[in-house]
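Question: Send over one sample?
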Amino acid sequence: MLTPDIRTVIESGRLGHVTTINPDGGPHTTIVWIGLDGDDIVIAKLSSDQKLANIARDNRVSLSIEADGHDHGLQRHIVIEGTATVTDGGAPTLLNHLAQRYIGPGATFPPDPNPPDGHIIHITPTRVRGHGPWTQQATNNKTDTDTRKQDTMQAIPTNPAAEKQIEAFLAETGVNEAMRTENMAANNVEELTAVANRHGFEFTAADMIRHQAETILTFTDAELVIYYTNEPWWQLCLEAYSLYGR
């Protein structure tokens, strides 16, 4: 997912803007030094902070980086969405390595001779977008997405009776304020289906996923969390069918 162009930007000495999710659902954004560890983006922290607390609760993150150059008058940039994990130790070594880029060759950082071991945040990308040469990658990913969508829809057969029930449920939701309120409170497809079932509509979570596949299967893993789970969407649909569609 990280092409040579993207890796060059990450290692260019540009500051990263990393966003995690606060307990109230709002964004928490800070400016950080960034590096690479294989296919992960890494960030060093000498002590615990709000970012680490947020990741421990919800590991979805995004990272934005400005890049050199302009295209059609727009500044090149990269936005990386992904999931984060935190490992203990190693922060001083990573910070000193990054200091050669962010401060200058020969820099010593942290200045404390005995810094704490700290933590390292590892961001595993699930989606890359932005403005620059890497936008071609998004086009390539869309082709891959379309193929997986087609395969998944073929694997989950249509249930005509359920389709009629879903259409009736959606139509009723459009005119029934109480039902619409319940729908808005649902956090995923399973909960939404439970709302419909309570009101006498007969279909399963898998039926709803199949019905909405044209939309759902274009979502990224991170976006799909609001519907069901953070499993990759093409696995989710097959799993949902095996659990609820029989």
